[in-house]
Design a protein that fits this description.
153 residues; mainly alpha; 2 strands; 58% helix; PGA_PgaD; Poly-beta-1,6-N-acetyl-D-glucosamine biosynthesis protein PgaD; transmembrane helix
């Protein structure tokens, strides 16, 4: 049986993980950079260039109302956004709506998943586990991080 997601990041050191992360970020940056000409074309088509020319470059005159209105509008939007966030934090921040769920025993896990007693115990004991299943989607092995993989019976 093949595992659909291969993840060996736990076996690599922090330096190699950081290098891989930086390489991934660099690749995404290059990918985004390749799309910039299309985004520029779309922005011009939509009218961003025309708006910029009309607002800031027409007759080489700067409109004093525009210089005052745009920053005031941006400041007001920021105040509204922060105010709304603080209102929600004050209203909902103290309440924890998550309810504690009762623990289930190994027998319930065995019945629900069709697992062996050993697999049911391992499923309940680990916070993070990798489960291998057979063709009928029944668990055949359970592995915790840093542990050798179980062989199916």
């Amino acid at each position: 049986m093949t595992v659909p997601i291969i993840d060996h990041s736990g076996e690599r050191g922090p330096g190699r993980r950081s290098a891989a992360g930086m390489l991934t970020a660099l690749a995404w940056g290059l990918y985004a950079w390749l799309w910039l000409p299309l985004f520029t074309l779309l922005a011009w088509v939509v009218g961003v260039r025309t708006a910029y020319v009309q607002l800031y470059l027409a007759d080489n005159a700067i409109d004093p109302f525009l210089l005052l209105a745009l920053p005031v509008t941006a400041f007001a939007c920021g105040i509204l956004l922060i105010g709304w966030a603080e209102y929600n934090r004050a209203r909902f921040g103290r309440h924890d709506r998550r309810q504690h769920r009762d623990d289930i025993d190994d027998r319930a896990v065995q019945v629900a998943l069709g697992a062996s007693p050993l697999l049911a115990a391992k499923l309940r004991s680990g916070r993070i586990v990798t489960v291998a299943v057979d063709e009928d989607a029944r668990p055949v092995s359970v592995t915790r991080p840093g542990e050798a993989r179980d062989q199916p019976p």
